């Protein structure tokens, strides 16, 4: 069994395609992190204030840099030449807000607020209003921010977590297909007959699944390593990415889910003798493997729903729902351990089923064997 394991690792991890896929994954991860860094970086805009002191236009938002200028014509020239994003100019007792057609909405809104502040303060002064008492009264009246309820999770973080676990599940399907293809190749070339002269069918299946699974795990750790490295090298504005606990949860549940499906893929490959017949027998396994993706997408809108709190313990759906819950801190370690225990029981049942199918069909060369025939043999 160890020899079969080493043979599978040599066959998978020394090929050009394996390293090319690793490189593509690393480039894609670094690109995503760079994109998030740019999206999350704070943007600043410049607004020119002309014809009055800066203090006359009120406090500017954090994203606005105020640049003083002299008069309306200067404000117009600076705005037109894109030296500033917008301008507020006082001329002949009136205030004008100057923007370009392509000025950012945030800069336009800030300039309008600053212009209204000057107009209101000037009007109060002309009406002999005690602005100090007015501001004190407004501050006492409110508004006061009151937070109610338990709050909601970070949608950006949940979106990144969904993307990550779907990528992991796609890895399960891809690596599972490799398991099935390897079984068919050995069966069609009759190499399996030579192998089974020295070891049992179950050991052959376990060695093959373990070898391909190891190659898949190396890819996952390279993926997570590039993610962590790119995240550390960035400016720290990658809060949309899942946290360390969510990443660890995703890896653990990937391993559990792969163990659940790998034997079924191997059993499916043993049912046929020609590679062109493989897709037909893989279809039931593919449907079962893809079902958690659809459920996870449906559950993402409300991870606190009652039906989600039940189905998150049911294999194979727990393989996606538990990492998603961990990304928003919706489950405890004890809950994940309980779901993992159920998943291990389901994995043992699937391995028993796969071993029976594999043993009864691996040596039947020629016509395809149905799942029912393999189980009944």
Overview of this structure, please?
This protein has 377 residues and is of the alpha/beta class. The chain has helices at residues 2-13, 16-40, 72-80, 105-126, 131-141, 155-188, 191-195, 201-233, 244-270, 278-299, 306-311, 318-327, 333-361, 371-376, and strands spanning 45-50, 64-69, 86-91, 94-99. A four-stranded mixed sheet has the order 2-1-3-4, sandwiched between helices. Helix 9 packs antiparallel against helix 10 (278-299). The longest helix has 34 residues, at 155-188. It is elongated, with a radius of gyration of 31 Å. It starts with a helix and ends with a helix. The mean pLDDT is 82.
**Estimated structural class:** alpha/beta
How many strand segments? 4
Strand order of the largest sheet: 2-1-3-4
Report the biggest beta sheet as strand number plus sense, adding barrel if it closes: 4 strands, mixed
- Please state the overall shape, judged from the principal axes of the Cα atoms: elongated
Helix-strand sequence: HHEEHEEHHHHHHHHHHH
Share of helix among residues? Answer: 55-70%
Give the SSE map:
Elements: H1 2-13, H2 16-40, E1 45-50, E2 64-69, H3 72-80, E3 86-91, E4 94-99, H4 105-126, H5 131-141, H6 155-188, H7 191-195, H8 201-233, H9 244-270, H10 278-299, H11 306-311, H12 318-327, H13 333-361, H14 371-376
Parallel strand pairs: 1-2, 1-3
Antiparallel strand pairs: 3-4
Helix pairs in contact: 1-8, 2-8, 6-8, 6-9, 6-10, 6-12, 8-9, 9-10, 9-12, 9-13, 10-12
